[in-house]
Amino acid sequence: MNTIQIMPAPPSPTTTLSRPIELYVFIDPLAPNSWDLQAIIRKLQVNYNQYFTLRFVLSTELASLNVACQRVNSCNSEYEEIDVSHPVLPSIAVKAAELQGKKAGYRYLMKLQEYVLLNMKNVRSCSTLLEIAKEANLDIQEFQTDFQSLEASRAFQSDLCITREMDVEEVPSFVFFNENIEDEGLKVSGNYSYEVYEQILEELLDGELICQQPPSVEELFKRYHTLSTKEVASIYNITEQTADRELKKKMLQQKVDRINYEESSLWRLK
């Protein structure tokens, strides 16, 4: 159920930001609707990145975190670890990737969601999570060490604490805070259209938003690596047919590859 409500200030004080809005996005990385949410976030970033900072909070509902961590930590080698599979492991893997930096964590999360969308491999298994780390260009040795560390599991537990403290009961949810930490935040639970989030940004900033010009297609793919036809159409405000035609040209130029799934397509930087 979609809801919008006023919230108290964030649980931890935030410093004054050069970008006046702080946006928390609560997601379950294994949820099937995560790709649609990602498309909205990307369009917001392309158009209004100058106004907000973004923080993803993993909110997977799991009662057996300790059991999963014990199974991973009890492995004596990566070969024993390969067959371990559990729904909590993707979230811990994202946190392990974040220990290599925010950008590394974001790359890993985007690649994980791509695997979930294509549904080709078991993303709950350690072997697939390691494969994703390689594709996300992480330091593999460091990732394996961090994946088995208490720091990664505690970081995930911290996300679950934030979820409880902000009374987030549904994913996805957005929580907007402005730079005045005494002001209440605005929680938006459920899925809404892009225009709703755009309007909220405008109201929080109490002024007209200045939309940035989108980058070239080549620059867009360097930034996000994998996009759907629908995403490209939305970002450039063109029809899906026009987007598909232009992307086919890029494919003929050997700049992108096409991945078919269900009734649509993903395009990946070559």
From TrEMBL:
UniProt KW keywords: Cytoplasm, Isomerase
Keyword Cytoplasm: yes
Major subcellular site: cytoplasm
One Pfam family this sequence matches: Thioredoxin_5
Functional summary from the UniProt entry: Adapter protein required for efficient degradation of Spx by ClpXP under non-stress conditions. Interaction with Spx stabilizes Spx and exposes the C-terminus of Spx for recognition and proteolysis by ClpXP.
Matching Gene3D superfamilies: Glutaredoxin (3.40.30.10)
Record has Ligase as a keyword: no
Location within or outside the cell: Cytoplasm
InterPro entries: Adapter_SpxH, Thioredoxin-like_sf
SUBUNIT field: Interacts with Spx.
Gene Ontology CC annotations of this record: cytoplasm
Single GO MF descriptor: isomerase activity
Gene this chain is encoded by: spxH
HAMAP family for the chain: Adapter_SpxH
UniProt similarity note: Belongs to the SpxH family.
Protein name stated in the entry: ClpXP adapter protein SpxH
Top-rank taxon: Bacteria
